[in-house]
């Protein structure tokens, strides 16, 4: 099982980042940017720029009949996952492997229900600081993809090996996780704090890298995830929170997360993936999350003004 072709669904900050990286590494003929006809025409006319370079993308119509891609990367916002599934359909065959770089802890389950769990390699996008403005993306840190398979799915080892070989070929930073579910929950905890607080406080990474009210609020929101993870059978601890804080400390101080970008652009955010998920699970386990309730309410108030 070798990955020759990769299809990317979603041209947000991460989709552009990975599309540009892979295209430069292996050429446009092996990299497909899957879009609808309207978007294709617009992107071809206006162009996409990444770190000052015009992207030489191969755009593929989502309805075009063709050989399925070997690897499909879903890189949309959580609010667009259903649409992305339809966009990806013609790219996915029996041997296609699917990676989701969406925030949260639910997209893999949704994709597995549609395309089959045997195609899913779990993935967490971590440490990047890509910022999109219009049709341009800039980043300082490309971050890394943390990938892995569930311990009870050894039959997917060949898929995981193929993904790692592809990342080696394209020089994309990655880490294979022995316990990928633990890593996904740790990233979820980070996002619950960083994304929501900086949207509500209208800040940048610098505001949560230094001591102060925003950092305190972020840590309090993150800490509410710990007991939920334990109830879910994931041993998430204060040590993981400290590791998340170390990751946050390395982000570009002037950068901002996706939800803050949503707020500036007056777009619907992924709040349901973060505090929305926390609140559902606290209700399930009879726990309490007042900080996430506050953040959820504030984000909804902000979105109501659009």
From TrEMBL:
EC number, as in UniProt: 1.1.1.169
Residues covered by the Ketopantoate reductase C-terminal domain: 179-303
Keywords: NADP, Oxidoreductase, Pantothenate biosynthesis
Molecular function GO terms recorded: 2-dehydropantoate 2-reductase activity
Record's catalysed reaction(s): (R)-pantoate + NADP(+) = 2-dehydropantoate + NADPH + H(+)
GO cellular component: cytoplasm
Pfam family membership, one: ApbA_C
Source superkingdom: Bacteria
Pathway named in the protein's UniProt entry: Cofactor biosynthesis; (R)-pantothenate biosynthesis; (R)-pantoate from 3-methyl-2-oxobutanoate: step 2/2
Family indicated by similarity: Belongs to the ketopantoate reductase family.
PANTHER family linked: 2-DEHYDROPANTOATE 2-REDUCTASE, PROBABLE 2-DEHYDROPANTOATE 2-REDUCTASE
General function of this protein: Catalyzes the NADPH-dependent reduction of ketopantoate into pantoic acid.
Protein name: 2-dehydropantoate 2-reductase
Annotated organism of origin: Trichococcus palustris
């Amino acid at each position: 099982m070798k990955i020759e072709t990769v299809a990317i669904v979603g041209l947000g900050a991460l989709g552009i980042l990975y599309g540009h990286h892979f295209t430069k590494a292996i050429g446009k003929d092996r990299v497909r940017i899957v879009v609808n006809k309207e978007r294709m025409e617009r992107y071809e006319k206006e162009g996409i720029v990444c770190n000052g370079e015009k992207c030489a993308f191969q755009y593929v119509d989502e309805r075009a009949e063709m050989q399925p891609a070997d690897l499909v990367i879903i890189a949309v916002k959580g609010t667009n996952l259903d649409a992305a599934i339809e966009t990806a359909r013609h790219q996915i065959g029996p041997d296609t492997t699917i990676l989701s770089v969406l925030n949260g802890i639910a997209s893999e389950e949704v994709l597995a229900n549609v395309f089959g769990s045997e195609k899913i390699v779990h993935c967490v996008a971590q440490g990047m600081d890509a910022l999109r403005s219009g049709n341009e993306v800039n980043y300082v840190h490309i971050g890394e993809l943390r990938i892995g398979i569930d311990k009870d799915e050894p039959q997917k080892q060949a898929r995981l090996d193929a993904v790692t070989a592809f990342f080696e070929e394209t020089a994309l930073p990655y880490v294979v996780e022995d316990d990928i579910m633990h890593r996904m929950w740790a990233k979820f905890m980070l996002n619950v704090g960083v994304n929501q607080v900086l949207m509500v406080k209208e800040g940048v990474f610098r505001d949560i890298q230094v001591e102060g009210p925003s950092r305190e609020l972020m840590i309090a929101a993150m800490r509410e995830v710990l007991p939920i993870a334990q109830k879910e059978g994931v041993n998430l601890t204060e040590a993981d929170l400290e590791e998340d804080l170390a990751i946050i400390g390395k982000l570009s101080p002037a950068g901002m997360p996706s939800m803050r970008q949503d707020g500036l652009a007056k777009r619907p955010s992924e709040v349901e993936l973060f505090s929305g998920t926390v609140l559902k699970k606290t209700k399930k386990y009879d726990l309490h999350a007042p900080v996430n309730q506050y953040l959820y309410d504030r984000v909804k108030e902000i979105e109501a003004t659009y």
